[in-house]
Design a protein that fits this description.
With 147 residues, the chain is α+β, with helices and mostly antiparallel strands. Helices cover 34% and strands 17% of the residues. The protein contains five helices and five strands, in the order ααβββαββαα. Helix 3 crosses helix 5. The N terminus is likely disordered.
Length: 147
């Protein structure tokens, strides 16, 4: 397993090099890993990223691209088992203008969705209500992750 070494500047590199619980890491693969988003849109919102820093969508090698896809599929299986969502948004935000909060470390978002999961809180108060602590979400999903 290769780990990024970009230090404290990158959320993904810190999570890759650190403790799984502290970094909210759900699953580690040979070339990629899955972790919860610290600022989730919905419960279970997670990301899959390669260990390699500086990996853009267009610079993922074949092994990284395949493993990102496989780990995202596993994430969907775990999310279905734990939360039974009605659907998913799966996608890449490429560039700051496209909504990427972290532009220099490729990652794909997996966001579970439920009928009626939007309400007035994000619109009126710029607040999202998440009914479960991220540590508990991490525990539940890590336990349900397909082997």
């Amino acid at each position: 397993m290769q780990h990024a070494d970009e230090g404290d500047g990158c959320v993904f590199c810190r999570a890759a090099a650190g403790d799984d619980e502290e970094g909210l890491v759900l699953r580690r693969g040979e070339r990629t890993f899955a972790l919860l988003n610290r600022f989730p849109y919905t419960s279970g919102h997670l990301m899959v990223a390669p260990y390699r820093h500086g990996s853009g969508f267009d610079s993922l090698d074949e092994g990284e691209a395949l493993e990102v896809h496989r780990v995202a599929v596993q994430a969907i299986e775990a999310l279905r088992a734990v939360y039974a969502p009605d659907g998913f948004n799966v996608g890449w935000n490429l560039g700051r203008l496209a909504g990427a909060g972290i532009v220099d470390h490729a990652h794909v978002h997996v966001v579970p969705r439920w009928n009626g999961d939007t309400n007035f809180m994000p619109v009126l108060a710029d607040v999202r209500v998440i009914p479960e602590h991220l540590v508990e979400t991490r525990r539940r999903l890590a336990e349900a992750w397909p082997r």
